[in-house]
Amino acid sequence: SSELTQDPAVSVALGQTVRITCQGDSLRSYYASWYQQKPGQAPVLVIYGKNNRPSGIPDRFSGSSSGNTASLTITGAQAEDEADYYCNSRDSSGNPSFGGGTKLTVL
Amino acid sequence: EVQLVQSGAEVKKPGESLKISCKGSGYSFTSYWIGWVRQMPGKGLEWMGIIYPGDSDTRYSPSFQGQVTISADKSISTAYLQWSSLKASDTAMYYCARGITIFGVALFDYWGQGTLVTVSS
After folding, report:
1. Taking chain B (121 residues) in consecutive chunks of 10 residues, what is each chunk's mean pLDDT?
2. Residue A69 in contact with residue A23, Cβ under 8 Å?
């Protein structure tokens, strides 16, 4: 089982703000990165480090962290944001680790 | 433009061997890690292992140690994931991804398109 815990599913009304969370002890010391995966596609990095977006990622995506919880916030969710979202950090051995994923539905 | 191009889908029988590939371009292949990630049907992402093509330093997830072998040929900018004896439970999509370390965390900034491996008798 993953050392990073995510809610399996979250929904948001079109245009509203949604927060997707990731919990784990390693997050007290290390940042999480976040990936978006749409059906039939490879994952795409959307947030890394403290709150950095790769080129091409809309600024409605942001990241934050508090204690053992990292969050991905989508401000003004769009229909195209409907996807699975995975957090990634490191496990107790220092190896990469993924959360179980959150399925985001945009209503 | 950074690209990772993976080999095509495979259909194999249990007990057969397999080696899939991931060719990098648009960047210095020997200066970045390449990781492999498994995604079983309808499931999440699982980190399998990672290799640094510059010196072939390789690390495995405990869940995959001894089950697969990761290698790289830097002369052709290609990383590999191989099995010596496939099982039906190896049926999955396998992704390669370029790994970078930021603030002590390995993350994956570019991904291949995935290779679907189906193992069935």
Report:
1. 98 98 97 97 96 95 96 97 98 97 89 98 95
2. yes
Q: Which of B39, B48, B108 to mutate to test the interface with A (most CBs of A within 10 A)?
A: B108
Per DSSP bridges, beta strands B115-119 and B10-12 are: parallel
Sheet bearing B18-25, strands edge to edge = B3-6, B18-25, B78-83, B69-73
Distance from the A14 Cα atom to the nearest Cα atom in chain B, whole angstroms = 25
Query: Chain A: residue nearest B44 by CA?
Result: A100
pLDDT attached to residue A2 = 59
């095509």: which residue's tokens?
Answer: B8
Separation of alpha carbons B21 and B113, rounded Å? 11
Separation of alpha carbons B11 and B31, rounded Å: 33
